[in-house]
Amino acid sequence: MTYKKKYNADGPSAEDRALDRFAELMIEKINNLQSDWKKPWFTEGTMKWPKNLSGRDYNGMNSLMLMLYAEKQGYKLPVYCTFDRVIGLNYQKDKQGNRTALKDENGEPLPQVSVKKGEKSFPVFITTFTVVDKDTKAKIKYDDYKKLSDGEKQRYSVYPKMQVYSVFNVDQTNMKEARPELYAKIEEESQLVKPELNGESFSFPAVDKMIEDNGWVCPIELQHQDRAYYSILNDRIVMPEKAQFVDGESFVSVLFHEMTHSTGSESRLNRIKPSAFGSEEYAREELVAELGSALVAQRYGISKNVKDESAAYLKSWLNSLKESPDFIKTTLLDVKRASGMIIEQLDKITQQIDNENSVQQNVTEKSGESKDRRNFYVSVAYLQNADDTQLLDRLHENGDYDRLLQEAKEYDQGDAIDLEHTFQSPIQNRGDDLLDEDDYYAVVYNNSVGGTYEIMRKVPEQEVRCMIERYGLPNNASKDVKVVAKNMIAEQFVEMTAKRMPIFEMDNGNVLQVQYNKETDHLDVGTVTNIGLAVKHSFAYDHSFSLDANLQGVHEQLSEMSEYQHEKADIGDVDNDGIMDEVTRDEKLLAEEVEEEVYCRRGR
User: Fold this and answer.
1) Rounded distance, CA 446 to CA 593, Å?
2) What is the pLDDT of residues 470-480, one digit of tens each?
3) Which helix (H) or strand (E) holds 67?
4) How many whole angstroms from its chain centre is CA 466?
5) Residue 74 shares a structural domain with residue 172
6) From the CB of residue 211, how many other CB atoms can be counted at a distance below 10 Å?
7) In terms of pLDDT, which residue wins out, 179 or 544?
8) Residues 6 or more apart whose Cβ sits within 8 Å of residue 318
9) Which residue, among 210, 204, 215, 325, has the nearest Cα to 253 in the 3D structure?
10) Where does the Polyvalent protein metallopeptidase domain lie (predicted)?
11) 181-190 mean pLDDT
């Protein structure tokens, strides 16, 4: 049975032709799996996630097809570019858009980069969005629309449009001969690093944290039993325990399969209904789960085999691919959405782990550098794909980082440092790459968020301290800046206690001592014991005010507490004038003590 192509009267569109190519690749892959379904979806030799020359990742649907295409063609690098992009490697543009041919150190023209004769391109889908104000019909950029609040977004209509672009793998060009340095750099960046998932105690930190903290869209329960499944009725994933799997890759692959199913519930991507399980309709859902989990696994360097229960659907998938042209499109779109949800969450958790265990912070703490010499990085410009970054892209691709750094400095307008975007390390997000830095500036590139450049000014810690002293600590200050503020208070507190111990003498005669807790950023109040301060009250430190002002504020709050106020009590009509006289609690206690003494002397 051949693939039945049904087109409109005008013939196949660019989208139709692209889907034909995709279907043919999928049919070939499933045929191979049918002959040996123990094979992985992507072989051991499959490379890293596909990206373009600027380092921007392709989305899940394109990535899936480009990896299958690279595997079939035997390409060595997962990097693709359009024909115009290849030609553009021979020139550089200035800020006015004028082109000049690239030359070597001797002023000689560099060898021309070109697509090899006879090479054929491969299609990829790029979705663009038109955003229109419902009332004024004015258009705004999609990047600006994404920054709006949910309420503001209601004013606009968003129209997606899928466009087809033709790309070539870098191995289809003569880059290796014409630009050996650039090719070698791409080759180095494309090395696949597989996680260590061997042994009984294998660990995938992001997955482990997600399960432990209940960080997925539904609960994931590990039980000592033999089934792995997603229950749409109970909205939960049930997995055998880790020790029941032969290795870590098997555990993670099966988990990703069930996580993909869980994205399809009615409350999420609305692919599956309770009645769908076990039906013919579920065959397509099983393919979505297989392709989605294979993509996610490949993203993190893990091989994904066809799940045993899914092997029975191979023939059904082939028939659907051959009979329905729409089957490949709807399936791939669902795979893209499902895998995107999982990857986004795992990357978010990985970033949390990286931030908690910041290598840069550990190095700084161990280095013993003084606060005057230690540098901080202040973001002064953040360039996204909507900005004009062609010159920076060109310098980046050619490895001319010295000039890239010089161009980046031009974006610094000399404004005062923003404590919200001030950090100890230039690396703040997963995927950040420090391209270059000198004594004054650094340039960071990230290819996973649309290809962004962040220009950072380097300042000494003393300048950060001066900003805090002058303007206080803003609520949105970075975590690193808040650490500096805490250190400043701790130092002031040490200086204060060297001269006088801050204590509070309350109205009722209690004496309380105060300490600053740097870990919690609180002023702790209590009584001194032989093992330290027995904390009774804790007050959040307000960095908008001085240490003295904070201490005064704490004293005022304590004074309002009834347990520390000067108490009074009624002890009767001592003058026999019919008026109840009030004496202090201390006087009453003294009277009781006197009575007790009399009681003892009488020998009762």
Assistant:
1) 77
2) 888 888 899 99
3) helix 60-73
4) 31
5) yes
6) 19
7) 179
8) 27, 30, 31, 34
9) 204
10) 220-328
11) 87
pLDDT score for 357: 63
> Is residue 5 in some structural domain?
no
Q: Please report which residue ranges of 216-358 form alpha helices under DSSP H.
A: 248-262, 282-299, 314-323, 325-356
Same domain, 252 and 309: yes
pLDDT at res. 498: 67
Identify which has the larger pLDDT, 287 or 576. 287
Instruction: Name which residue leads in pLDDT, 366 or 539.
Output: 539
Contacts with 18 (C-beta within 8 Å, 6 or more apart), sequence order: 123, 124, 125, 164
- Residue 288 corresponds to which amino acid? V
What is the average per-residue pLDDT within 299-325?
82
Specify if 9 maps to a domain: no
Domain that holds residue 447: 374-477
| Beta-strand pair 236-240/79-81 | unpaired
Q: Coil, strand or helix: which one is 385?
A: coil
DSSP H/E element including 453: strand 452-460
Q: How far apart are the first and last CA of the chain?
A: 114
User: Do 333 and 227 touch, CB atoms closer than 8 A?
Assistant: no
**What was the pLDDT predicted at 200?**
53
Judgement on whether residues 183 and 53 belong to the same structural domain of the protein: yes
The yes-or-no verdict on residue 197 having pLDDT over 70 is no
Asked if residue 30 is part of any domain, the answer here is no
pLDDT tens for 511-525 read: 888 888 888 889 999
| Run of H or E residues at 181 | helix 180-189
pLDDT of residue 201: 56
pLDDT at 499 over 80: no
Distance CA 282, CA 271 (A): 10
* pLDDT top residue among 67 and 280: 67
Question: Which 3 state secondary structure label does DSSP give 408?
Answer: helix
Position 7 in a domain: no
Of 443, 477, 511, which closes a domain?
A: 477
Residues 465 and 506 in one domain: no
Mapping DSSP to helix (H, G, I), strand (E, B) and coil, where does residue 287 land?
Answer: helix
On whether the CB atoms of residues 351 and 430 are closer than 8 A, the answer is yes
Q: Using CA atoms, how far apart are residues 198 and 203, in angstroms rounded to an integer?
A: 8
Q: Both 265 and 306 in a single domain?
A: yes
CA dihedral sign, ordered 320, 321, 325, 327? positive
Q: Which of 225, 231, 220 is nearest to 243 (CA)?
A: 225
141-148 CB contacts, 8 Å cutoff, 24+ apart: 141/386, 143/384, 143/385, 143/386
**What torsion do the CA atoms of 185, 187, 188, 190 make, to the nearest 10 degrees?**
120
Cα–Cα distance for residue pair 136/222, rounded to 1 Å: 54
Q: How many domains does the chain have?
A: 5
CA distances from residue 535 to 88, 335, 492, 519, 523 in whole angstroms, order as listed: 68, 55, 21, 15, 10
534-563 pLDDT per residue, tens: 888 999 998 888 888 889 899 889 988 888
> Do 572 and 538 share a structural domain?
no
By residue count, the chain amounts to: 604
Do 149 and 217 have their domain in common? no
pLDDT for 338 equals 94
Same domain, 555 and 591: no
Confidence of residue 530 (pLDDT cuts 50, 70, 90): low
Residue 247 has what pLDDT?
A: 82
Question: Residues 238-244: what's their mean pLDDT?
Answer: 90
Whether 351 has a pLDDT exceeding 50, the answer reads yes
0.90 surpassed by pTM: no
